[in-house]
Amino acid sequence: MAAENRRADKSLILPTDPVAEAGRKILAGQVRRMRRQEAGSRSGEDIESVHRMRVAIRRMRSLLKLIPDHYQDATVSRLEKGLRDVARALGGIRDLDVLILDLENYASALPPEQLADMQAIIDRLDRRRENRRARLNALFDSKGYRRFLRQLRRFAKTPGKGARRVKVRSAPHQLRHVLPLLLHQRMAQVKAYDVVLPASDINDLHELRVEFKQLRYAVEFFRPVLGASADRFLQSVRAIQEFLGRIQDISVFIEAVSRLKKLTPEQAALLEGYREARQAEQDRLREQFEELWTRFNNRATQRLFSDALLVLR
Length: 313
What we know:
- It contains twelve helices and no strands.
- The chain has helices at 2-11, 19-36, 38-43, 47-66, 73-107, 112-140, 143-157, 175-191, 202-221, 229-258, 265-296, 299-309.
């Protein structure tokens, strides 16, 4: 038990940690999450394995974008390239995972005589997914991937590795001094969208979703050193991010099925009905978004964010 406590203490983020070392602790946890999902991503037995591995990688990339000034440029560039390569391979599979699942849900309400045609479409997409999984597994088996993992683990486990040297002792470098500015910058990136909302197109909403995700990750990374109001603030951020996520998923679904060729007339009619249903859903969600955005921008929600930072001294 004592040994476990010592290991836990090493991973605990403290307000007095140098930003580079706090980031290293966070990244080490995400590396462990990523590695735990590799076997499931290889096999495809649980589609959530790809999703969880992808999220861990997204979080690491988000962290490196949040605090790049605290690491050497070459270190950030090398890690980002390796993470990006794996993220791309996982992303192609994940897009098909969610599309197939959505088509299956849509098919559950179809009359029996249309199920065979829908299943043929799903089987076609499943074959495409397996081809992408084969490419993912080839990446996992490559020397380059194994070399990247060694570099990533070494960076995550070695205090000071790849960190920029603090040349002036009085320069802000501890988490308690730097974090308020970092989080306010993330919040500013989100709130700046009030100049284009609610009259916005799908691309604006997608970009806003990305900014919400970056804000969410940043607050979650450093939740251990923030005030209790951070939890309620995160609830609001997650809700709006998931709402925007569904809007974006529908755009991806519509584009993906629109690219399918060599369909029978029956299959083409099925997919046209699917596109129309999803477009109607997206239109409803876009109409509802203004209320969510207004609620996020009210004083109560913004105060939760401000209060969460007051404990940093």
